[in-house]
Amino acid sequence: MTVRAVADSSVGRVDGMKTLAKSEFETLIDGLIDDDPRSVVGPQRRSGQYVFEELDSAADLALEYDLTALSPKKYLLPQYEQLLTYERTDGEYEMHAGTDTEGVIIVGVHPYDLAAIEHLDKVHIDTMGDEPYRKRREDSLLIGLTMQSVAPESFAASMGAATTDSGYDLLVTDIGDRFVVDIGSFEGNELLADLDTHSASHSEVQEVRRIEDDLRGRFERELQFPPEELPTLLAEHYDDMEFWESYAEQCLSCGSCNMVCPTCYCFQVETVRDLGGDSGYQQRSWDGCLLEEFASVAQGENFREEVAQRHRHRFMRKGLYVYERYGDVSCVGCGRCTRHCVADVADPTDVYNDLWEATNA
Amino acid sequence: MTERPRVAFFDFTGCEGDQLQVVNLEERLFDLVEVVEVVSFREAMSEHSDDYEIAFIEGSVVTAHDEERLAGIRENADVVVALGSCAAFGGINAIRNDQDFETVTERVYGDDADMIEANPEARPIESVVEVDATIPGCPIDREEFVQVVTGLIRGVEPTLPNHPVCVECKLEENECAFHRDEICLGPVTRGGCGADCVGEGTHCWGCRGMVDTPSEDAYTAVLEEHGLDAEEIVEQYQLYWGWQRPERATQEEAQ
User: Fold this and answer.
1) What would the pLDDT profile of A224-282 be if each residue is shown by its tens digit?
2) Contact B14, B84 (CB under 8 A)
3) Which residue of A75, A258, A275 is the best one to mutate when testing the B interface, meaning the one whose CB has the most B CBs within 10 A?
4) Closest CA of chain A from B126, distance in Å
5) Yes or no, beta carbons of A251 and B31 under 8 Å apart
6) Strands, sheet with A80-89, edge to edge from the N-terminal-most edge strand
7) Closest chain A residue to B145, measured at CA
C-alpha cells in the first residue's frame, strides 16, 4: 500500500497520466489473473445486480456498473473472519492467529469506495492497529475507475466523493476509444511497465477533467448544504425525538443499511466450539447499530432499545460521532443504504435535508 | 450434566423432517454419538429408554394426550429442547388456528371427522412445559443443531440469533426478493439460516419465526406498498406464525 504516501510524492497527477488502448488494459488484467498469486476481483453482473467477485477474465469486467451490492470493503474486512483457532492438548490450551490476511487486487473501484477505504485506513491502521486489516490492505492493489454510470440513489458529488485524486494505485478513465490512467503509486507505475502506453497528451488530460466535471453534475440526489455543516446540524437535533421517531415508525430495523455501508465497520465476535470440546475458533462478523441486540449488554440492559434511538444513532454516527473522533464525515454518498432499504427510510439526503430545512426554514 | 449425556428424541404433530435433518448429519453422527448417548430415537433406532437427560422434541401440541405425554417427558429430562418450528412456535400446523375447527377436520378427514379428538389450536411445546433451548427452522439447520448440542454439553447458555434474514442476504449479496417484485418475510424473520431460500432465487416464508421485536406496522406498510390487501397480508403472516403472532400481540397488550 502506498496510498497515503502518494499525496506528497513526486508522482503528480498530470505527470502521472498515461494513455493506453483498451486491449492493453485487458492484457494487464489477464496477466495479473494468470501470474499474480493474489486474487484479482472486479465488478461483474450477477442475477440482477453488480457485485465485486473474483475474475476469470478481464472480459467479465462490468466497467459500466453504477453501484455494486457490497463495496470492496469486504476484501479488507471480510463479512466473516476467523480471528483465532484454539486447541487443548494435555489440558493446555494453545491459540493460533487464524485469519487469512492475503491481499487482493481490486479492479474497477469507484471514487466514493476509494474514499471509504481511505477512511477505513484511518480507523483501522492509524488508530486501532487492526492487524488483519493492515496486512490485507498493505498487500492489496486498488485499481480505481472513474464512474461511467451514476446510480439514481447516489449523491457522492455532494460528499466530495464523485471524483478523487488519491486512494488508488491506478485510476482508469474511459475517454471513448482508449483509457487514460492516472498513476497513484510506485506499485501502480510498475504495473504499466511492460505495456504499450504513452504519456497522456494535454487534450487527453483535458478530456479526463471534462468527464469528471460533467460527472459531478449527473447526480439525481444531493445534500442541500455543505457536508461540513453536518456535525453542528446533528448536534442541534439530537434531542428532537419527534423527528427521529417519524422516520423510525417506518423503519424495519433490519440492519440492511449498516450491512451495505462501505464505511460501517462494527463487528461482533463469537466462539464456535467443536463438538469434542477441545478445539474451536473465534470469528468476527459484521454487526449493525440498527439491530436490536447491537447495544445490549450483560444482565439484559439495552442502551438503544427503541428503533428511534437506533435510527438516530446511525445518522449521528455518520455525520457527527465519527467526525468528532477522526475528523471525517463518514458518509461517501454511494447510495447503497437507499437502494437496499425495503421501507425506503434510509436515504441520508432525505434525513439530512429535512433537518437542514427544519433549522433554516 | 454427565460426561456423555443420554439423549432422546420425541415426535409430536409434525412431519419428522427435523429428526430427518439429524439423521442427515451422516458421518457427523459418529462425532455426535461420541459425545452423547442416544437412548431413544424412533426415526433412527428401535431401542427405547426413559432414562435420559436431554429431550429433543419435534412437532406441536394438538391433543390432550400430547399434553400428558409432554409433561411426562419434561419430568424425565433435565433439559428440554424444541426441535424445529412446530415445537418452537407452532409452525405450519398453526395455520388452522384462526379457522373453524369443525370445517378443518371435515376438510381433512371427511366422513371420519367426528373420530378426531384434538384441541382447536396447534401450540408450541412451551405452552405446556418449560423449554430450555430452541432450534427453529423448517427444517432445522444441521449446523445449528450441532452447535446447540455442543453448547448444552459444555454448559453454554443457549442463545438464538435475533437479527432478521435481511442481514444474511446482504452479507451473501443476494438480490433482494422485493427487487424481483416478490414478497419476502425476511425483514421480520429470525436469521441464522444463511438466507438460503433467497440465495436460491426464491424468498423467505418466515420458517424460523419472527425476530424478538418485529417492526410489524412498518412491515405491513411495505407489503401494502407492494400491492397486498389486508387479507393477503394476513395470509403471509399466517403460514408459520399462526400461533406466534397473536401470542405476541397478547403479550404486548399485557405489558
Assistant:
1) 999 999 999 999 999 999 999 999 999 999 999 999 999 999 999 999 999 888 899 99
2) yes
3) A275
4) 22
5) no
6) A92-97, A80-89, A279-286, A267-273
7) A275
- What residue in A sits closest to B149 (Cα-Cα)? A275
Residue A123 and residue A81 share a domain: yes
Q: What is the residue-averaged pLDDT of chain A?
A: 93
Contact A133, A125 (CB under 8 A): yes
| Residue A221 counted as domain residue | no
Tens of pLDDT along B85-119?
999 999 999 999 999 999 999 999 999 998 989 99
Closest CB from A47, A80, A274 relative to B175 = A47
Of A12 and A309, which is predicted with more confidence?
A309
- Predicted TM-score (pTM) of this structure: 0.94
Name the residue among A52, A51, A50, A26 with its Cα closest to residue A39: A52
Give domain B6-154's CATH number out of 3.40.50.300, 1.10.3720.10, 2.60.120.280, 3.40.50.700: 3.40.50.700
Cα–Cα distance, B23 to B18 (Å, whole number): 9
Chain A CB contacts of B166 below 8 Å:
252, 254-256, 259, 342
Picking from B34, B170, B213, the nearest residue to A260 by CB comes out as B170
